[in-house]
Design a protein that fits this description.
The protein is α/β, with parallel strands linked by helices. The chain has 2 domains: 164 residues, Glycogen Phosphorylase B (Rossmann fold, 3-Layer(aba) Sandwich); 147 residues, Rossmann fold. It contains 14 helices and 13 strands. The strands form 2 sheets. A 7-stranded parallel β-sheet has the order 3-2-1-4-5-6-7, with helices on both faces. Strands 10-9-8-11-12-13 form a 6-stranded parallel β-sheet, with helices on both faces. The longest helix is centred in the C-terminal third of the chain and has 14 residues. The N and C termini lie close together (8 Å).
Length: 334
């Protein structure tokens, strides 16, 4: 069977789709991945045959993908939530398709197409990587959903955890690749430094040199292999992006979320409502507030950690990519 996966050209949208694409390839299917060139390297490294439709850089429109649908004649298209144009192109070409989520169903007016854009290709099931108890209630009650365990993915790299012989908790700090500022990072680091913990910072879009001098227990890198850091961490402090939120929950870690935009405020609200973390809104972020909230989340025994562990068990019970990949021919009608 030949499949096309299609995604926005960003870590937050392409990376959640890679585990299923790899599982499909390993199951013997021919897999091609449509996206802008910014994410081609990890796709190619995993044998996913990346290609750039037309003039696609980040977004993708129906007319971009249409020629490739004719050229490749896929049996199934797996299109990310962020590329409704790919779903429209597949529907127009008469090719079966599946939506692939990146977390909770996102609210309207966050910079992506509104969820109502999904109506452009109705009747297609959703590969849903969000644990049911955290999913948007309306979406969970009305959409046809195929549960798919979220599997953290990151390109391999060195582990910048500092002196691993040291005891004590490890805090992972990230504001992702699209949000954050030097002031926000330095304020958050100053708060965490008051707790005497080791801190690993993924600077992301913030130039490392703008963060300046940090305490000895703080390691700052432009990029961190998140999937490898999370199992070693005790607390995650982050922006509330879907990938980091689900990755931390899969590892059973409590979270301090400092949402900045997009779907992050809704994600933070859901994590707080589940009891698995705390939140500071932009106007509440000070070094003192970060220190106070992180101190509440760090103990090995706490209600927050218990709630995160319960969500980790829920995620672990979801069908994995290998299991779902075996079912893909059902949705292609073959």
């Amino acid at each position: 069977m030949r499949l096309i996966f299609a995604s926005l050209a960003s870590v937050g949208h392409a990376y959640p789709m890679i585990p299923l694409a790899v599982a499909a390839r390993q199951a013997g299917h021919e897999v091609h991945f449509a996206a802008g060139e910014a994410v081609h390297a990890p796709l190619a490294a995993n044998g996913l045959r990346p290609f750039r439709p037309a003039d696609t850089f980040y977004e993708m429109y129906a007319e971009d993908l249409a020629p490739d649908l004719e050229r490749l004649a896929p049996d199934l298209v797996v299109h990310g939530w962020g590329v409704p144009g790919a779903a429209v192109a597949a529907a127009q070409a008469g090719v079966p398709g599946l939506w692939h989520g990146f977390g909770r169903m996102f609210p309207p007016h966050i910079g992506l197409e509104s969820p109502t854009a999904i109506a452009a290709a109705p009747g297609r099931p959703h590969l849903d990587i969000c644990p049911p108890s955290l999913q948007d209630a309306t979406f969970a009650a009305t959409a046809e959903r195929i549960a798919l365990r979220p599997v953290p993915f990151s390109a391999p790299g060195p582990m910048p955890t500092g002196d691993d012989d040291r005891s004590g908790p490890l805090v992972y700090l990230t504001f992702g690749t699209a949000f954050g500022s030097a002031d926000l990072v330095t304020t958050t680091v100053a708060g965490l430094a008051r707790l005497g913990t080791r801190v690993v910072v993924a600077a992301g879009r913030v130039p490392v040199e703008e963060i300046g001098v940090v305490p000895a227990d703080v390691v700052v890198r432009e990029w961190v292999p998140q999937a490898e850091v999370l199992p070693r961490a005790d607390l995650v402090v982050h922006h509330g992006g879907s990938g980091t939120t689900l990755g931390a929950l899969a590892a059973g870690l409590p979270q301090l979320i400092l949402p900045q935009g997009a779907d992050q405020f809704a994600n933070a609200d859901a994590v707080v409502a589940a009891g698995a973390g705390l939140r500071l809104r932009p106007d509440e972020v000070t070094a003192e507030a970060v220190a106070e909230h992180a101190a509440r989340l760090l103990p090995r025994r706490s209600e927050h950690r218990d709630a995160a562990s319960a969500l980790a068990r829920e995620i672990a019970a979801m069908p994995g990519p290998d299991e779902v990949a075996r079912r893909l021919p059902e949705y292609a009608g073959s």
